[in-house]
Write a structure and sequence with these properties.
rod-shaped; single chain; alpha/beta; 8 helices; Rossmann fold
């Protein structure tokens, strides 16, 4: 077994003796496949099958934090590793193989995976074209083949475009223009992620694209671009320009609406300030009226007390007057009696 940075393993597990190794029956993986796997290899032991010595792929994996990178050039379906040795296995299956030959390699790759590990396989779509003509799509045919060996399978189609995906600044979302993807034509390869467990041990965005070729960005690709593709590009540009114009109109309308709302807000704030001043004035007036009522109540109570005292005095004076009238009548009666007595005694009344 070779650790990261060491020489590749031979089929038997020994280092080569200096002779040029036989051409492997497996296909080397393009760089974008390594870029897709980079976020998932940190701290993992990775097996890279059929990578040529000195290729950039293992270096990408090491820089991404892989604990160990093992690469080998097998010439038969036997990997020089024990069972359950690696966390992630990368392999490209050739087009010329039959499903039975692919099955042997799939079983061998599954054997060296640890529980919870997964493999990344690159398969040519042309290998499933016959089955697709029989009524089953190439993607479905590829999925059926892989599900015979793995419990969970997820397939990503490659695209020939090199720059249709971009990272939105400040977010974790990967934005993809699917219209541009359709212009690249049918995909030439599938990239399948497979695991022998029910849960997916990988994490991919739903709109992920794996760019594998420069395509129309090179002079050769530009020379081979058809009139239909150019027309489609122009139509896409026109659609985007129309969309941009529509968004500009929506933006202007939103600005006008914002200004209108701001004006209404300013008017309402001024009206609210006037209402607040009126309320404060009314509250002060109510407070003043309350104080005045309290003073009037005090004066009323004083008047009531004074009235009660005067009434009592008047009652006392009335009783005193009645008493004096009684005394006066008694004196008058006594005078009359005395006069009568004096008159009976012959005493002149004027002397009394």
């Amino acid at each position: 077994m070779a650790a990261a940075g060491s020489s590749p393993l031979s089929p038997s597990g020994d280092s080569p003796n200096g002779e040029r190794p036989p051409k492997p029956p497996l296909e080397s993986l393009p760089v974008p496949v390594y870029l897709m796997v980079e976020p998932m290899v940190s701290g993992k032991k990775v097996l890279d099958v059929a990578t040529s010595v000195g290729g950039p792929g293992p270096e990408f994996l090491r820089r991404a934090g892989a604990a160990e990178v093992i690469f080998c050039l097998p010439d038969r379906p036997a990997l020089p590793l024990p069972n359950g040795e690696v966390d992630i296995a990368l392999c490209g299956l050739p087009t010329v193989w039959s499903d039975e030959e692919r099955g042997v390699w799939l079983a061998e790759i599954r054997r060296v995976l640890r529980p919870g590990g997964f493999c990344v396989l690159r398969l040519a779509t042309v290998a499933f074209r016959k089955k697709a003509q029989g009524g089953t799509g190439m993607r479905a045919a590829c999925t059926d083949l892989l599900l015979a060996y793995f419990a969970t399978v997820e397939i990503v189609e490659e695209t020939h475009f090199g720059g249709v995906s971009f990272q939105v600044p400040g977010t974790d979302d990967l934005a993809v223009n699917e219209s541009l993807t359709r212009l690249s034509g049918a995909s030439g390869h599938f990239v399948a992620l497979c695991a022998d467990c029910a849960e997916r041990p990988w994490n991919l965005t739903e709109s992920l694209l794996v760019p594998t070729e420069v395509g129309a960005s090179t002079e050769a690709g530009a020379a081979s671009a058809s009139a239909g593709e150019l027309a489609a590009w122009r139509a896409e540009v026109a659609r985007l320009e129309a969309r941009c114009a529509g968004l500009s109109r929506e933006r202007d309308g939103a600005r006008e609406g914002t200004m209108t709302v701001q004006d209404r807000t300013d008017r309402l704030e001024r009206t609210l300030a006037v209402l607040r001043r009126d309320v404060e004035r009314y509250l002060r007036q109510i407070s003043d009226d309350g104080a005045a009522r309290e003073l009037l109540a005090l004066e009323r109570d004083d008047l009531r007390r004074n009235l009660a005292v005067a009434t009592q005095k008047a009652a006392d004076a009335s009783r005193e007057a009645e008493r004096r009238q009684v005394a006066l009548r008694a004196l008058e009666n006594e005078v009359v009696r005395l006069r009568a007595a004096r008159a009976g005694a012959g005493i002149p009344t004027g002397k009394i």
